[in-house]
Structure formats: C-alpha cells, structure tokens
Amino acid sequence: MTSMQAIDIPRFGGPEVLRLTGRPIPQPGVGEVLIKVTASGVNRPDVFQRQGHYAPPRGASDLPGLEVAGEVVEGDFSGSNPLGLKRGDSVCALLAGGGYAQYAVAPLGQCLPVPPGISVLEAASLPENYFTVWSNVFDRGRLGLREDGSKESLLVQGGSSGIGVTAIQLAHAFGHPVFATAGNDEKCRACESLGARAINYRSEDFVERVKSETGGRGVDVALDMVAGDYVPRELDALADDGRLVIIATLGGMKATIDAGMVMRRRLHVTGSTLRARSVAFKSAIAKELHEHVWPLFAEKRLRPVIHGVFPAQEAARAHALMESSAHIGKILLRW
After folding, report:
1. How far apart are CA 234 and CA 162, in angstroms?
2. Which residues of 9-26 are buried (b: 16+ CB within 10 A; e: fewer)?
3. pLDDT digits over 96-123, tens only?
C-alpha cells in the first residue's frame, strides 16, 4: 500500500473547508519513524492553521495535526534511541504537522511509549499538552519550592482546556496549590475534580480571589493563554518574584503593563511557542516527561481527560466544537 487517507486544508476558512483526501504514505528519514495512526489530537493551533493564521514550519507537512498515537511500523533506529523504542511498539508522538492522517512521520526522539494503563487512543491526547505544560510551567516558569521549602502555587487560565486540565493535574500531582479559571459552573467543577481551586471568571474577579486565598501574597506562576488585557491583571495577581508565562493570545496580542511594578516586585514575563523548536529541544522534553511524568500514569495520579472522539472524516465537527469552547479536555480524531 502506497496511499493513505488524510484531512487537508484546500483553502482557508471555517471548519467546513476540511477535506478527506488521499495522500502518498510519507517515508521516514534519518532519525524518524513511520506511525500507523490510531488517533490524532485536535488542538487550537490546528484551527489557526485552517484559518490561515499559523503556517507550518519550514519542512513540515502541510497537513494539520500536532500529535498522534499508534504503532511504529518502520523507521531509523540506528541513532540515539534512549527509550529503546522499536518496530511494533505503541507510541504517542509530538509532530510539527501531518497528524491528521492514517500514517504520520515523527522524529524518534519525539516519541514516547503509551503509558501503562492508558489505551493507544487515549494516548493521542497527551503529547501536545504535556510537552507544552512541562516546557512552560516547570522549565520556563520554574514552578518549584519557595525559600521556606513550601510548594509554589500556580494559576491556570482556561482550566478546562486541554492545556488547562494537563497543567492542573501535573502541578497537583507534584503537590502545588493550583487555581484555575473557567467560564461556567460545569467547567469549574471539572477543574476542582482534578485538584484546582476553580474561579468562574464570569462571576468572580480572579485577582481578588487569588489574593484572598493566599493571604494577599498572590501566586508564584501564572500560565496564560489569553494575553491582551489579562496581562496587567495577572501581574497584579503574582507574588513578588512571580513568573507570568504566555503561551497563546486568544484575548489579543498587545497589553499595557506597569513597568515600575515589574521592577519593584521583581516580576518575570516570558512566553514561548513549541511547534518550530528544534528536534533536539523537543527530544529533551520527551526524556524529562518519560522520567518524571510517565510513571504518574501507572500510579493513577494522572489521567487523560477526553471530551469527545470523532471519526476522522468528521474533522469539521471536531473543529466546530473546538471553536465553540464548549468542550472540557481533549478532542480526538479516530482513524
């Protein structure tokens, strides 16, 4: 067999432009593997790509899709292979594109074994969010210990999103107090079930609530997917020496901040995107996840949170759900 089914973007527009089509099966290169895909994760960047706002990095597939899970069917295992992966293994993988297809190529270093107790389909919900959260909350945001040895606290904006449910679970599993914002009571309950103190941003001021529950101190790290006019409020909600990490700009690209407050309180504002980073960078994250995070699945301290699974040919419905923001957790496409 030399061809496969895939979902492509023949023109930019709404969910309806997504099209089931035929493509040649991609061939793995040096240090890469070919995965027969069981399921593909649906993420907000896929929506932006479909709308024409987020082009794939140079050399990446033009097909959307940043994460898959399935079976390794062939590849190059001659180079660095610290996890000992081989043909026939069930894996999940982070991609720079090409995930909406029956077969996908991934760098070997960006593949992880399916965690114990998790199905291959469920594993498709993990890579994009876990790579992103680990890199931004624990590496860039440095969520850790205070000088007195107590655990630092985290504020997660959009706690019911795929990123949100991952950040809540990971921080909670490591013993950190977590606050999370969400837009209705159902989403707030979902955040609370994962270990967060939930804040309904439509009826509560998250700055006041955070300050009230931390004795006026504020949180040590804030993970922001909104930006825009949220930024000055998040800075106000930070403790001295706090870190604000911006990973999306759903609320706008620009913000006005009090630079004097940033200096006086020694605040840090940072951010990142993951898709265009090097294979070496992402492979290093994979090793850290395998060492520090994957064992927590076996211990039942982490679990996939999946809102819905759509047949791949119904990708348009999956994108419409993503844009509605009515989901809690992840959306998947099944092949």
Report:
1. 21
2. beeeeebeebeeeebebb
3. 999 999 999 999 999 999 999 999 999 9
- One-letter identity of residue 168: I
- Residue pair 93/148 in contact (Cβ under 8 Å)? The answer is no
| 131-271 has the same fold as 3-126+275-334 | no
How is domain 3-126+275-334 classified at the CATH fold level? Quinone Oxidoreductase; Chain A, domain 1 (3.90.180)
The architecture of the domain spanning 131-271 is 3-Layer(aba) Sandwich (3.40)
Asked whether 248 and 228 are in contact (CB, 8 A), the reply is no
Residue 1 has pLDDT above 90, yes or no: no
Partnered with residue 103 across adjacent β-strands are: 36
This prediction's pTM: 0.97
Q: Transcribe 3-20 into DSSP letters.
A: EEEEEE-SSSSSGGG-EE
Residue ranges of the domains in the chain?
3-126+275-334, 131-271
Residue 187: partners with Cβ closer than 8 Å, 6 or more residues away: 159, 160, 198, 328
Give the span between the Cα atoms of 10 and 146, in whole angstroms: 51
